[in-house]
């Protein structure tokens, strides 16, 4: 495959580019994931709360692609946090996906007041030990959440999936992850397609390379070392977002893009999100 792999801290290889399916209804997800798999994607990012594990699983099953060539991520939703409820929710997710294991299982949000993520993560460690997830990790964790997890549990999360794009570059989180061997995975990597793709700096770099703004932004992520999971339901864009291995941003491009950081969150702030 053209997609480079990132080796997670437990030795498991994860494709650096995958396909996200947030806000894609279940039946449409089957079509979108099938299109993505045909285009060459092998990593799919879903979540229990997206309501499309079933549609994702059906596309995977009918693709005929060997299971070992796929990398399937799903996430535990907030209301299922806690040891026993996590084990039950994981069974439900596997059933909907029609799989006997996932490649990566993530805690979707830390939930600041409920204080259940440590017990939840202990259930994740059992799922990992039982071979039903090849890697476990978290999403939307802030430094204080990661520090508590590292202090109170034994498996260092393989991944922290956080909002990250040129207008929210997460420099501090990326450095913290690097210190602990945690892979940074970028959600809303294209800034949800709003605004970012029209920023003059991005458009100018796209013209320079005869590429699209989306391709420039995805290249930026890849060259930074992020795992990236752009979403689209439009077949031409699904293919466009995968076609990012035939060019490279230079130092001037990277410097210009670095200057776009303005700490602009599009999604919820993990420090207040319940
Ligand atoms: P994104 O940054 O991937 O943007 C997707 C949108 O950008 C599309 O809906 C479309 O409007 C536009 N777009 C896509 N390709 C384009 C192209 N080539 N040209 C022009 N416009 C284009 O946003 P996202 O869906 O929020 O994030 C990607 C994935 O990250 C999600 O599908 C989901 O899997 C994951 N995610 C996770 C969390 C979390 O809390 N862990 C939160 C949000 C998203």
TrEMBL record:
<feature type="domain" description="NADP-dependent oxidoreductase">
    <location>
        <begin position="17"/>
        <end position="261"/>
    </location>
</feature>
<feature type="binding site">
    <location>
        <position position="108"/>
    </location>
    <ligand>
        <name>substrate</name>
    </ligand>
</feature>
<keyword id="KW-0521">NADP</keyword>
<protein>
    <submittedName>
        <fullName>Aldo/keto reductase</fullName>
    </submittedName>
</protein>
<feature type="active site" description="Proton donor">
    <location>
        <position position="50"/>
    </location>
</feature>
<dbReference type="InterPro" id="IPR036812">
    <property type="entry name" value="NAD(P)_OxRdtase_dom_sf"/>
</dbReference>
<dbReference type="InterPro" id="IPR020471">
    <property type="entry name" value="AKR"/>
</dbReference>
<dbReference type="Pfam" id="PF00248">
    <property type="entry name" value="Aldo_ket_red"/>
</dbReference>
<keyword id="KW-0560">Oxidoreductase</keyword>
<feature type="site" description="Lowers pKa of active site Tyr">
    <location>
        <position position="75"/>
    </location>
</feature>
<comment type="similarity">
    <text>Belongs to the aldo/keto reductase family.</text>
</comment>
<dbReference type="GO" id="GO:0016616">
    <property type="term" value="F:oxidoreductase activity, acting on the CH-OH group of donors, NAD or NADP as acceptor"/>
</dbReference>
<dbReference type="InterPro" id="IPR018170">
    <property type="entry name" value="Aldo/ket_reductase_CS"/>
</dbReference>
<dbReference type="InterPro" id="IPR023210">
    <property type="entry name" value="NADP_OxRdtase_dom"/>
</dbReference>
């Amino acid at each position: 495959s053209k997609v480079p792999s990132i080796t997670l801290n437990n030795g498991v290889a994860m494709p650096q580019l995958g396909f996200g399916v947030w806000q894609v209804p279940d039946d449409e997800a089957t079509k979108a994931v099938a299109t993505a798999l045909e285009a060459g994607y092998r990593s799919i990012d879903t979540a229990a709360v997206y309501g499309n594990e079933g549609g994702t699983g059906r596309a995977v099953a009918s693709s005929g692609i060997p299971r070992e060539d796929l990398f399937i991520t799903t996430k535990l939703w907030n209301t299922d946090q806690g040891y026993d409820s996590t084990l039950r929710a994981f069974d439900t997710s596997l059933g909907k996906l029609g799989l006997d294991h996932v490649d990566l299982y993530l805690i979707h949000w830390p939930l600041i007041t409920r204080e259940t993520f440590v017990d939840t993560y202990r259930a994740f460690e059992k799922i990992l030990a039982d071979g039903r997830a090849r890697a476990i990790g978290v999403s939307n964790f802030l430094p204080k959440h990661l520090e508590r997890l590292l202090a109170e549990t034994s498996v260092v999360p393989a991944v922290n999936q956080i909002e990250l794009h040129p207008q929210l570059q997460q420099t501090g989180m990326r450095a913290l992850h690097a210190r602990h061997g945690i892979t940074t995975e970028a959600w809303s990597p294209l800034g949800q397609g709003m605004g970012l793709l029209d920023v003059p700096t991005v458009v100018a770099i796209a013209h320079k390379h005869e590429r699209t703004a989306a391709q420039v932004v995805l290249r930026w992520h890849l060259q930074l070392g992020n795992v990236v999971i752009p979403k689209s339901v439009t077949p031409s864009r699904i293919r466009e977002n995968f076609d990012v291995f035939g060019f490279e941003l230079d130092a001037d491009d990277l410097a210009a893009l670095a200057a776009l950081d303005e700490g602009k969150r599009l999604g919820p702030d993990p420090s207040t999100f319940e």
